[in-house]
Amino acid sequence: MSRVAQLADAIEQVGSGLFLVVTGAGISLASGIPTFRGNDPEAVWKRDVTELGTFRYFQEDPVGSWSWYLSRFAKVLGAEPNAAHHALVALEDWQTARGGSTLLVTQNIDTLHRAAGAKNLVEVHGAADRLRCPIDGCRYGAPRGSLARADFDLEPFQAEPIAENLPHCPDCNVILRQHVLWFDEYYTSHEDYQWQRVQSAAGLMRLVLFVGTSFAVGVTDMFVQQGLLGRVPIYSIDPGGTPPPYLGIHVLADRAEELLPAVCQRLGAKIHESN
């Protein structure tokens, strides 16, 4: 059986149950965004992940933290959804039309699933187009507040990267932080991460599809463990065919931007790139 037929049949067998999709940085590589831990030349975590991606680093060196994220976001915020993003929206619509349900949990902060038109979406690691106050309890901070990045002029900081030119909280007058989950933080630290919804989905899912993930964070581990325990079919799209760190996962060695549209065609799920 071809990989297209294998995945299409697995999705079809979900029936009216929950089809869960979990995406990582690999799905956005075709949109021009380097991966975090991959082997592509621009993989962004070539430096120590525990140094750059932490709240501690932001507190110690907000200028350094902001400079690194702005260099990263130059590609993130200018990117467009690729064929894989649009195909997942088509699969969501197809599954809904037949009385089933879907949930797309993305580890990515690039907002491309949202731009493609995904409806049942959890951006479990935050979003690049939002900022927030680092002080918990502030109306612009955790557990539920945030601010639109577009509302702040970052050109002064880009021209002269000093603390005085960074955006400050309208209430607390402290330097704003990225609205992302850092490696020394918890999924429950902000309501936007929708952790309760994610946990509920783990108990309801009838199929798990991982796309472009290295299985290196807590959310992927939770879904894999729950899936294996409940004997839920688990698939992973990985163009390199890299064996995952778990037994029981069916690896599909294809590019997501090629495989997923082909699956849509086989199932009759129509792709609308204007979504």
Report on the architecture of this protein:
- The chain has a 6-stranded parallel β-sheet, sandwiched between helices.
- The chain has helices at 3-12, 49-52, 55-60, 62-76, 83-97, 112-116, 155-159, 195-204, 218-229, 256-267; strands at residues 18-23, 101-106, 121-123, 126-132, 147-148, 177-180, 205-211, 234-237, 250-252.
- Helix 1 packs across helix 10 (256-267), helix 5 (83-97) packs parallel to helix 10 (256-267) and helix 8 packs parallel to helix 9 (218-229).
- It is elongated, with a radius of gyration of 19 Å.
- It has a single domain, classed as TPP-binding domain (Rossmann fold, 3-Layer(aba) Sandwich).
- The longest helix is centred in the first third of the chain and has 15 residues, at 62-76.
- It contains 10 helices and 9 strands.
- By secondary structure, it is an alpha/beta fold.
What order do the helices and strands follow? HEHHHHEHEEEHEHEHEEH
Work out the strand percent: 15-25%
Query: Could you say which overall geometry the principal axes of the C-alpha atoms support?
Result: elongated
**Total beta-strand segments:** 9
Kindly give the count of domains: 1
* Helix content, binned percent: 25-40%
Q: And the CATH topology? A: Rossmann fold
Q: Which homologous superfamily in CATH is the superfamily?
A: TPP-binding domain
Looking at the overall shape, the CATH architecture is 3-Layer(aba) Sandwich
Tell me the strand order in the biggest sheet: 3-2-1-7-8-9
The radius of gyration is 19 Å
Distance between the termini: 31 Å
**Average pLDDT figure:** 92
Number of helices: 10
Low-confidence stretches: 37-46
User: Which class best fits the helix and strand makeup?
Assistant: alpha/beta
Instruction: Output the CATH class name.
Output: Alpha Beta
- Mind summarizing the main beta sheet? 6 strands, parallel
